[in-house]
Design goal:
109 residues; Glutaredoxin; 21% strand; four-stranded mixed sheet
């Protein structure tokens, strides 16, 4: 069991589109709502705007961005689990399970 919530972070530019007419910021908000329903207080979700003051708390992520990583970058805990593409609930769910965090209710179908 974890001692606090596992944090899922999405690193991207705030106003960049994610292909569905949404911004990554709004897509992260929707992700947080979905994960909150499934995992409750065991998971927290944070959007981190690249090159904001907050982003400098994550030098390893910024180094990947400067090396050409595709956006968005998604971390679970301190580990990057995806670069580019869509925000993948199944991939995030697997990464949470590897950290001992399991759904309180099944995923909707």
């Amino acid at each position: 069991m974890t001692t606090g919530p596992v944090v899922v972070r999405v690193f991207a530019a705030p106003m960049a589109g994610c292909g569905s007419g949404e911004t990554w910021m709004s897509a992260t908000s929707a992700l947080g709502e979905r994960l909150g329903r499934r995992f409750g207080e065991d998971v927290a979700v944070e959007f981190v705007e690249l090159f904001s003051a907050r982003s400098f708390d994550f030098p390893a992520v910024l180094a990947r961005v400067e090396a050409g990583a595709a956006l968005p970058l998604v971390t679970v805990g301190d580990d990057v689990i995806s670069e580019g593409g869509k925000l993948s609930d199944p991939r995030i769910g697997r990464a949470l399970a590897e950290r001992g965090v399991f759904p309180k209710c099944p995923a909707p179908r």
